[in-house]
Every structure is written in structure tokens, then in C-alpha cells.
Amino acid sequence: MSGAQEAAKDVLAAWSERVHRAAADGTALRIVGGGTKDFYGQDLVGEPFPTRAYAGVVDYDPTELVITARCGTPLEEIECTLADARQMLGFEPPRFGSGSTLGGCIAAGLSGPRRPYSGAVRDHVLGVRVLDGKGEDLAFGGRVMKNVAGFDVSRLMAGSLGTLGVLLEVSLRCQPVPKAEATRILELDGSAAVRRMNEWGARALPISATWYADGMLFVRLSGAESAVSSAVREIGGGNQEHAAAFWSAVRDQANDFFARSGGQALWRLSVSSTAPFAELGGAQAVEWGGALRWLVADAADGADLRSWSRKRGGHATLYRGPKSAGAFQSLEAPILGIHRTLKSTFDPAGVFNRRRMYPDF
């Protein structure tokens, strides 16, 4: 066994012992990777449980389109490794700075602009290793694409915000970088932009991202040169220069729209793509072909926004801002019961990330 492997083994032994003690003492632990997503979810509770010490790419074979890495590995390192082989993470996770880790990326379950066209975080997770609330090292799934039979626990970890355990290792499906890309800009009002996105979504166009704000609709096309060129002619509009920088800012929520929130709340509304564009009391942006609406507004309790979203097949999340309204929309009793059962199975003593998702969870 190499020195690095011995060190990794020692880290896991120390972590397991700490979880054992926390379960016995009733101590709450707060899992911390890079801390770049501390704003997301409910208030932070418990003693910090840092994960950066358990890092490194475990396995990567570009011909298999699968990468396996430890939880503390910087997301930047993962993406650089893939870029060397002209590959990428298809769900384009927001990076929120150089401190973002792979474990935090999967636990948060946040996807970027390419999500409707390449899949969400959970769609790319093939296997995981998890340290549960009893200090046990569990493995689910694998490192190949055809390995799932029955209930897919691996994907359950995506978006669980660390409430079920510490993600130790993750195997992810990768995809090739597109041969060609182009971004077009059209000047439209909100209703016309949503209608246009849905019309395009019903056709075989190589769209890989959309963004609408302040009367301007941006459309990214990705794929073979011939397909992109044909779509450019069909969609029309003007050309977006410095497109890579533009989409990077959208992906990392660092563009002008997100910067304007100031002291106001930032809401994230996931709805049917065909939901009409409506004036919701603040500055609004539309992503994901119409299915994701961002809203900067002083909506203290969010009741109207959550009602509007529910009627349109979705939900509203208080993404940034004071969490007096609750970060996430309340669950129906049957679904909440499933959440509680999963929590009690993986973390019976309630050690990890207490109340991170819901105040009473």
C-alpha cells in the first residue's frame, strides 16, 4: 500500500471514530467541504466536520467516460483532468469559486445551464461510497454505466445536502466536449421568449443552454459543425462575442442579474417550461428552456411565490437571503415520511447536518 493510500485509510479511520463518538454523545456534525455553498439551505448547525483531507482522483479512463474521485477533491481539479481529455461534466455544476469540492457539488445537487439537455447531477452519478451516521463505510452502484438493479441509492445522495452521511467517493459519467458551439442573441419580451424556448424545445435543435433577462434571450448551440451552423441560420439573431465567459458567469451565478440582488432575497422557481411569464414582484431571469425562473424580490414569507409555482407543476426555493420563510417548500406528508425513513436508516442518531433541509428534520 502506498503512502497516499495509508494516509487516506488513516483519515477514514479517524472520521469513523469521530462519528461513533458524535452518535453516542448526541453531538451534531456539520459537513464542510470548501464552504462555498453554506448559503444554500437552512441555517448551519453543529461542529464543523471538514472533508478536504480526503481528496484525489481514484480512477479515470477517458475511453470509459467515467471518473471516480474522493469527496475533498477540488471541483476545479476534476474539470482540469477531464479537459485534458476533451471531456466535461455534462450537468455544468456552479463552481462558486476555487474552493468548491466534488462532495459539496454532489451533496448540493445544483446543475448549471446545460441541465435540461444533458441531465441533472443525479443522472450522472454511477456510484458512491458513504460514511453513514453509525460510522460505517458503505458502497452503492459502481464505476460502469450498466450497474443498477432495484433502488438506486447512489443517485439518492445527489441533493441530500449531507443529511444522510459523508460522501467519501463518487463515480461520475462524463461526456465529450462539443465539436462546435455558437451563441445567438434575440431581443424579445418575456412572454415571447418563453414561447420561443418551448417552440425550439419541440424541435431537433442542438440547444445546450438558454438565458433570458432584461429583454434579451441568449441561446447556446452545441454539437457538430454542420448542426450548429444550420441551427444558427434557423434561430437567427445576433452573435454573442466572448460567449464562453458569458456562460461561465451564468453557470457560476456571477453575472449582472445575480449581482443586483443586494439585500433582497433571491428565489429559485422550478416550474413547467410552459408556465407563462408573469410579473412576480421583482427582477426576473429565465433559464432551462423556461423551466427555471430566478427572481430578485422582497418576498418575506414566499407564500404567493410558492402557491404560483405549485399551480404550475413545481416549487419555489429561497435560494439566498434570510430563511425565515424556510429555504425549501414544505413536503406533502407521504413524501416527508419517506425522507424521515431514509434519514433514520442512514443516520439514526441525527448526527449529520441537522435542520439543513427542513427546520424539523
Describe this structure in words.
This protein is of the alpha+beta class and 361 residues long. The chain has two domains: 3-176 and 341-346, Uridine Diphospho-n-acetylenolpyruvylglucosamine Reductase, domain 3 (2-Layer Sandwich); 180-325. Helices cover 31% and strands 25% of the residues. The chain has helices at residues 3-25, 75-84, 102-108, 115-118, 121-124, 153-156, 190-201, 225-235, 243-251, 256-259, 303-311, 333-346; strands at residues 29-32, 47-50, 57-61, 66-70, 87-88, 125-131, 137-141, 166-173, 175-176, 180-187, 207-213, 216-223, 238-239, 265-270, 283-287, 292-297, 315-320. The strands form four sheets. The protein has an eight-stranded antiparallel β-sheet, sandwiched between helices. It has a five-stranded antiparallel β-sheet with strand order 3-4-8-6-7. A hairpin with a 4-residue loop joins strand 15 (283-287) and strand 16. The longest helix is centred in the first third of the chain and has 23 residues, at 3-25. The radius of gyration is 21 Å and the shape is globular. Mean pLDDT is 93; it is low at 145-149.
Keyphrases for this structure?
361 residues; alpha+beta; Uridine Diphospho-n-acetylenolpyruvylglucosamine Reductase, domain 3; 2 domains; eight-stranded antiparallel sheet; 31% helix; globular
